[in-house]
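TASK: fixed-backbone design
INPUT:
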């Protein structure tokens, strides 16, 4: 009755994660349309800036400039690392590490280039057939995110992004198309990457362009509501195509702790943590949490819903809860009174004096991962997947193709230890797909030099380089971790 688990389960999904827009490149190949990600601007002057301004809101003018080669603001599209043409080589490397799972996303714009067509693009569908077949050849389970920060640009400029209810139908058409096409090849799905980021980065998460929405808070939650309904309908589509399918939600989860035991700090922490938990509450339970009414009243938010929405969300909650975890944060009700504890945009908190930080100021807290896993499991009693975790760092390629990324090994090792602790705590942890298993373009900075991978890619911030793949020290380390099912770290 009380079985203590001291090892990782036999079927644990060891692997890594990536997103189409950061990995694939070939943004104008195979009939692909432009996505939001294709027009991000890389700012060479602020190389260490997190989550650049365009992640929040862009204007129509900026979008036009980014697409106009004559403009000095022109950015030559997301170059990725050309996985589109290197996928066989890349998957062979993942297989060499012993990957059991590869979390990847489908670029919506390869399937429906503008988003609102009726007929899908066969070339795009065929590309993912080849990728899934290749993964299958090595027994690697694909875990597929339907929307990872890259809706078709056309849905943004023409319809106003997710604030428009019409986008639900376009997304469901896309989800149904891929669910049906890949029903024999994909079992694990995720609907929206870091869905809670609608409250942090409206452009990238919602497809909202600045001048469309003077009341941005209303737009955020209206768009989120549409994503909830779309996610439930996509879950339905995946399960109708394959009753064995497992569909998960995905939230960016930064564990937040009170800066002090002052009751105001404690309440502020509860409130702030709900900017993440609100989303898992809806998607894992299938209904809005009790605190929604008050939260909406205080923000003057009045949602437009349809009578069927409640039932749809109730009928199709997710099967598992997945999340990204890079850091934790501390919350103070009075941050202005804390000397030296500057605000952290990503956690919405202040600096925790007990924790070290990465080169980009992300506060490293492995023990917080154990707490986060336990919290999510206690709340929903559904399997948990650690869908992203990792250290963005400046790697040095030494002579003889050597990359000694011991700092990355240390980071990952300490986090994996805590997953093992969470398993011993009794949590059903499905797997661990660390972020950026192959180096790729960083989402928040658009940089190549912020690397996460076990595999180095010879390419610089402007997309120049041979794109040669080189194994880092962490490659061999992770290979052994997987081979020993997490016993040797
Ligand atoms: C997550 C995203 O938020 O963080 C990824 O899902 C992203 O797309 C990752 O790459 C790391 O962020 P960054 O900005 O360092 O690439």
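OUTPUT:
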């Amino acid at each position: 009755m009380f079985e203590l688990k001291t090892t990782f389960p036999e079927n644990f999904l060891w692997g890594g994660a990536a997103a189409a827009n950061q990995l694939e490149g070939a943004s104008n190949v195979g009939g692909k349309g432009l996505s939001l990600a294709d027009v991000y601007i890389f700012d060479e002057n602020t190389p260490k800036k997190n989550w650049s301004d365009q992640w929040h809101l862009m204007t129509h003018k900026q979008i036009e400039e980014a697409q106009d080669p004559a403009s000095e603001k022109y950015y030559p599209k997301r170059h990725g690392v050309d996985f589109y043409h290197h996928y066989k080589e890349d998957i062979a490397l993942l297989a060499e590490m012993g990957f059991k799972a590869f979390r990847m996303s489908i670029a919506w714009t390869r399937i429906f280039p503008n988003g609102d067509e009726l007929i899908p693009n066969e070339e795009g569908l065929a590309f993912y057939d080849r990728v899934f077949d290749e993964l299958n050849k090595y027994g690697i389970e694909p875990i597929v995110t339907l929307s990872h920060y890259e809706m078709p640009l056309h849905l943004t400029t023409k319809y106003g992004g997710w604030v428009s209810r019409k986008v639900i139908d376009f997304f469901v058409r896309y989800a149904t198309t891929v669910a049906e096409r890949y029903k024999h090849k994909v079992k694990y799905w995720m609907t929206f990457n870091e869905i809670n980021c609608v409250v942090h980065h409206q452009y990238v998460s919602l497809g909202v362009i600045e001048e469309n929405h003077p009341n941005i808070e209303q737009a955020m939650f209206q768009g989120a509501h549409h994503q909830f309904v779309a996610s439930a309908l996509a879950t339905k589509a995946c399960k109708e195509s394959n009753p064995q399918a497992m569909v998960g939600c995905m939230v960016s989860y930064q564990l937040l702790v009170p800066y002090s035991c002052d009751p105001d700090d404690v309440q502020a922490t509860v409130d702030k943590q709900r900017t993440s938990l609100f989303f898992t509450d809806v998607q894992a339970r299938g209904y809005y949490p009790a605190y929604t009414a008050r939260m909406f009243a205080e923000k003057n938010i009045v949602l437009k819903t349809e009578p069927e929405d409640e039932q749809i969300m109730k009928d199709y909650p997710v099967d598992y809860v997945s999340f990204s975890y890079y850091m934790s944060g501390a919350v103070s009700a009075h941050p202005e009174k804390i000397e030296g504890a500057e605000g952290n945009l990503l956690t919405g908190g202040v600096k925790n004096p007990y924790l070290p930080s990465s080169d980009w100021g992300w506060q490293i807290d492995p023990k917080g991962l154990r707490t986060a896993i336990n919290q999510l499991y206690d709340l929903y009693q559904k399997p948990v997947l650690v869908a992203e975790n990792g250290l963005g760092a400046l790697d040095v390629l030494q002579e003889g193709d050597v990359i000694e990324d011991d700092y990355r090994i240390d980071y990952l090792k300490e986090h994996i230890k805590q997953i093992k602790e969470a398993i011993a705590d009794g949590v059903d942890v499905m797997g661990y797909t660390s972020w950026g298993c192959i180096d790729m373009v960083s989402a928040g900075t658009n940089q190549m030099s912020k690397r996460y991978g076990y595999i180095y890619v010879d390419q610089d911030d402007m997309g120049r380089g041979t794109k040669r793949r080189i194994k880092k020290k962490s490659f061999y380390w992770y290979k052994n971790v997987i081979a020993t099912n997490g016993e040797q770290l």
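COMMENT: The chain is about 35% helix and 15% strand.
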